[in-house]
Specification:
The protein has four helices and 15 strands. It has about 230 residues and is mainly beta. It has a six-stranded mixed barrel with strand order 1-5-2-4-3-6. Strands 11-12-8-7-15 form a five-stranded antiparallel sheet, with no helix packed on it. Strands 10-9-13-14 form a four-stranded antiparallel sheet, with no helix packed on it.
């Protein structure tokens, strides 16, 4: 359902459209993109499998096949999708369980930008966007049920897909959180009472550190840090 160009062969072989560390360092994807098919749908509630509370404000989003969703590794990234009528930029917010690799399930608004919705499907070419303009600093949401003994964090407005999320422990060291397939990052034994210092690294090797993320479930906490 989506991504990479010159690193394409390696990425597709790995069943993920995330750029490999080598291609990220090299800075290239190629320009041809990936050929596939697009359909469309509408999110009924929330922001899809990626656990965002709402769809993007512009209504331009996409759900990926399980292989390209890659257990939430694609969440929060962007694709440029080109069809018969033009190109649209969409945010990855969801998984399409019934989709085969190479099939994009676009929002209706996004599909209408690139093809005739009356036809139901369209041939497309798509590729990942490097360092998309997000227009907001990082935000965090602590999942309901989190406590000093179990912590789940959602990272919002990072732009490129994420590689890792770490929290600084009371010992001064960084502790890696585990990504879930619903896009929260988990410290299964907790990280104490907080507030937390959180370090985020994306698929393009950008890194940002946010201070004083509170143990405050269900609140969106906007940080001062941006990824790039």
């Amino acid at each position: 359902m989506r991504r990479l160009p010159s690193a394409l062969a390696a990425v597709l072989a790995a069943a993920s459209l995330l750029p490999s560390p080598a291609s990220a360092r090299a800075g290239g994807h190629g320009s041809a993109g990936v050929k596939g098919q697009a359909t469309f749908y509408e999110l009924r509630s929330g922001g899809g499998n990626c656990s965002y509370l709402t769809p993007p404000a512009d209504g331009l989003y996409v759900a990926l096949s399980p292989g390209e969703y890659a257990g939430a590794a694609a969440c929060g990234g962007y694709l440029d999708v080109t069809g018969p009528r033009g190109t649209v930029r969409v945010k990855v917010v969801d998984q399409c369980p019934e989709c085969a690799r190479g099939q994009l399930d676009l929002s209706r608004a996004a599909f209408a930008r690139i093809a005739d919705p009356g036809k139901g499907t369209a041939g497309v070419t798509y590729r990942p966007v490097r360092d998309p303009r997000v227009g907001a600093p990082l935000s965090f949401r602590v999942k309901e049920g989190s406590s000093r003994w179990w912590l789940a964090l959602l990272v919002i407005d990072h732009g490129n897909p994420l590689r890792s999320v770490e929290v600084r422990g009371t010992d001064g060291g960084w502790h890696k959180l585990a990504r879930t397939d619903y896009n929260y990052w988990i410290a299964s034994s907790g990280m104490g009472k907080g507030p937390f210092t959180v370090r985020v690294t994306d698929s393009r090797a950008h890194r940002a550190t946010a201070e004083r993320v509170r143990l405050a479930p269900a609140l969106i906490q906007r940080a001062a840090a941006t990824m790039y």
